[in-house]
Specification:
- It is built from six helices and six strands; from the N terminus they run E-E-H-H-H-E-E-E-H-E-H-H.
- The protein is of the alpha+beta class.
Length: 170
């Protein structure tokens, strides 16, 4: 289902029969106002089919016997950088921080790495952790340190300070 301010579109399989009651329920949901949607994963009934087809499920997130955490950072032009993470199994376990100001010269990757550091610090070392993010630069920065030993260097890295914190946590 796709919704904009003045249009809603819902496509269904050609063999599916949609009742008037179902159409009304969709229209009511589309017209609802409020803030961001809160994620509610239900792994039962028909919703299970949907959730098991998502990227998190394909990565083993819903079956992982450990911590599944998602983090994100923002670096708005002219504003303060912010970062945060949420433990997807314990939604009350979340943290957010301001991580600096644009004039300090950090890259947009800085708040993304800060969210990763917060998540690492909030997860016991003895538990497996799946970390979900939407930033390829962050993944490359951290991957460059996994298994590198003494060969890797932070000289010239744009976010050496926060990257060092992530490496120390790992």
């Amino acid at each position: 289902m796709a919704v904009s301010e003045d249009h809603a579109s819902c496509w269904v399989h050609k063999d599916l029969t949609v009742t008037t009651k179902q159409i009304q329920a969709l229209l009511t949901a589309a017209r609802a106002s409020g803030g961001k949607d809160e994620r509610q994963v239900r792994l039962t009934g028909i919703e299970r089919e949907y959730w098991m087809g998502t990227e998190i499920s394909r990565l083993g997130g819903y079956g992982l016997r450990g911590t599944v955490t998602a983090g994100d950072g923002s670096n708005p032009k002219g504003g303060e950088m912010g970062t945060g993470y949420v433990n997807l199994r314990k939604q009350r376990k979340r943290q957010q921080r301001k991580v600096g100001r644009e004039e300090e010269g950090s890259s947009s990757n800085h708040p993304e790495l800060a969210a990763f550091v917060l998540a690492l610090r909030g997860t016991p070392v003895t538990k497996p952790m799946l970390y979900l993010c939407d930033n390829q630069a962050q993944l490359k920065a951290v991957k460059g340190w996994v298994g590198e030993g003494g060969k890797a260097t932070l000289v010239g890295a744009p976010d050496a300070d926060i990257l060092l914190e992530a490496i120390e946590e790992l």
